[in-house]
Amino acid sequence: MSKIVELFAYPVARTQLDWHNIIERQFCPYTQKKCFKVRKSDPNVSIGTCIVEYGKDSEDIIICPHRLLQNNQIFFDCLHLLTLHQPGNELHIVPEVSIPGGSVDYFLVSTDNNRKVKDFVGIELQTIDTTGTVWPEREMVLYDKGLIPTKPAIGKTFGMNWKMTAKTILIQLHHKIQTFQSINKYLVLVVQNPLLEYIKREFSFSHISSEARLGDPMHFHSYSYLKDNELYKIKFQHRYSTDSAGIATLLGLNANANIELKEITAILESKISDSTILPLGR
């Protein structure tokens, strides 16, 4: 029995699906593109693993950040941070915007009718990085579905890189939050509950506000992963907030990053188009 829970966004437990077509297409419904997770030995083959079962309690762990995009829920859950948004404004999702300190995964942007930026929120997605390889487990799914003739050898295949994942994202946040705080805008980290619980256990988290405050520029949004009939969905669970000093307390680091508001605004306006408009979900 494979430890893969979802492959190309479909629960592997579902039998009444055209699995041959799913594997052939290698399509991610959340990005509307071919799955970006490809084999190093063969870049033409996407691995397609979204969620795996892991640990002694067999917990379902999201290992692909795009899986958090389901129904665009994470963007709607940030609408309250667009404090300058007005009825009638357009909402846009702009991916991969570079600022001092690195690239931000997404910006949720409010524009007027002329598509001039009125407000924005930066949104970072983080899921657990794996060690080893999930490929044998992925091949076991194909064997169970009758798509390959030979049963793969399953030994020690993959693990969860909790420490490096948590430390890396917190260092990145420390660099980026300086920029957002200096221009009075918000940055949101979106994670699955197990990763947030790890950060709370392993880092100094007691000073982080469990009552998310609009006065804080750094927000944490965590999600659970629930089964709904034969499908799975993410569900908003917790909110926390802090500022740049709070992130520094987590790590004991310093960073100097600053950028003028008009520079970020110009970058966003250059990327906004009909294709970036926030849809109601898919």
Explain this structure to me?
- The chain is an alpha+beta fold and 282 residues long.
- The chain has one domain.
- Helix content is 25%, strand content 30%.
- It has seven helices and 14 strands.
- The strands form four sheets. Strands 7-8-9-12-13-14 form a six-stranded mixed beta sheet. The chain has a four-stranded antiparallel beta sheet with strand order 2-1-5-6, covered by helices on one side. It has a two-stranded antiparallel ribbon with strand order 3-4.
- The chain is globular and about 60 Å long.
- The model has no long low-confidence stretch (mean pLDDT 90).
Largest sheet: 6 strands, mixed
Secondary-structure element series:
EEHEEEEHEEEEHEHEHEEHH
Separate helix tally: 7
How many beta-strand elements? 14
Low-confidence stretches: none
Binned strand content: 25-35%
- Rounded average pLDDT: 90
Strand order of the largest sheet: 7-8-9-12-13-14
Estimate the global geometry from the Cα principal axes. Answer: globular
Residues in helix, %: 25-40%
Kindly name the structural category: alpha+beta
Span from first to last CA? 30 Å
Quick description:
The protein has helices at 19-25, 73-76, 135-144, 162-182, 193-202, 244-251, 261-271, and strands at residues 4-7, 10-11, 27-28, 33-34, 49-54, 59-62, 90-99, 102-111, 117-126, 130-132, 158-160, 186-192, 218-228, 231-242.
